[in-house]
């Protein structure tokens, strides 16, 4: 059993899979972190701007659609990751498995 694990770890396809997946996940994490920290900084340093109503006669402020946007962007980035995982990352996983089974 240990031999199978060693074969997988030594596989060029496996190393490529790990590298691509980590790089992509890191990039998406940085994007989300920048968006979230930006929103928190807006709350901290521009609360009056965020609290300004979108237009006269409404209780909906600028902060509400921006906050909803942060949530929506997190779902979109998750969807992008899943889409890529189901495509490219699954193909690389199958290549690793077929390589190990062939040996």
Automatic annotation (TrEMBL):
Signal peptide: none annotated. InterPro entries: DUF485, Inner_membrane_assoc. Keywords: Membrane, Transmembrane, Transmembrane helix. The chain crosses the membrane at residues 24-46, 66-83. The keyword Transmembrane applies. The lineage of its organism: Bacteria, Pseudomonadati, Pseudomonadota, Gammaproteobacteria, Enterobacterales. It comes from Kosakonia sacchari. GO terms for cellular component: plasma membrane. This is Uncharacterized membrane protein, DUF485 family. Pfam families: DUF485.
């Amino acid at each position: 059993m240990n031999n199978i694990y060693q074969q997988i770890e030594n596989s060029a396809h496996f190393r490529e899979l790990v590298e691509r997946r980590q790089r992509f996940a890191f990039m998406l994490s940085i994007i989300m972190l920048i968006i979230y920290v930006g929103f928190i900084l807006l709350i901290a340093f521009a609360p009056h701007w965020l609290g300004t109503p979108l237009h006269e006669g409404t209780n909906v402020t600028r902060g509400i659609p921006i906050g909803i946007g942060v949530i929506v962007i997190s779902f979109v980035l998750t969807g992008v990751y899943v889409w890529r995982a189901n495509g490219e990352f699954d193909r690389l996983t199958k290549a690793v498995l077929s390589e190990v089974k062939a040996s």
